[in-house]
């Protein structure tokens, strides 16, 4: 493969050719590019919840502390419907990786730019 991957395929010449065409199409597709702080280098297609949250951060959404409910509402506005159980884990991971900071506001955690 162009990427250096070695593939062994058994089958008829037609089957092998069809599989190779599919593999080549997949390997030539666009890839998302993220640097170490998850900053977006190009307007590539976003595929993960973390990418969606990082995009919110880059637009200034986290200049003021935001609750999980507010984050979920902002994502829904963008067309990304994420369950709260998934969202809480992803935001906590971003906090642990120091991409976001969390503050206690009464009984609610709020998230802000670091």
Structure explained in plain terms:
The structure is a single chain. The protein has 114 residues and is an alpha+beta fold. The chain has 2 domains: 1-30; 49-113, Arc Repressor Mutant, subunit A, CATH 1.10.10. The chain is 42% helix and 12% strand. It has helices spanning 13-27, 49-58, 68-77, 84-96; strands at residues 66-67, 100-105, 108-113. The longest helix has 15 residues, at 13-27.
Biggest sheet details: 3 strands, antiparallel
Number of domains: 2
Low-confidence stretches: 32-36
Q: Going by CATH, what is the homologous superfamily of the largest domain?
A: Winged helix-like DNA-binding domain superfamily/Winged helix DNA-binding domain
- The percentage of residues in β strands lies in 5-15%
Structural class: alpha+beta
Widest β-sheet, arrangement of strands? 1-3-2
Our Rg estimate from Cα atoms comes to 20 Å
- The counted number of beta strands is 3
Topology:
Elements: H1 13-27, H2 49-58, E1 66-67, H3 68-77, H4 84-96, E2 100-105, E3 108-113
Antiparallel strand pairs: 1-3, 2-3
Quickly list its features.
elongated, 114 residues, Arc Repressor Mutant, subunit A, alpha+beta, single chain, 3-stranded antiparallel beta sheet
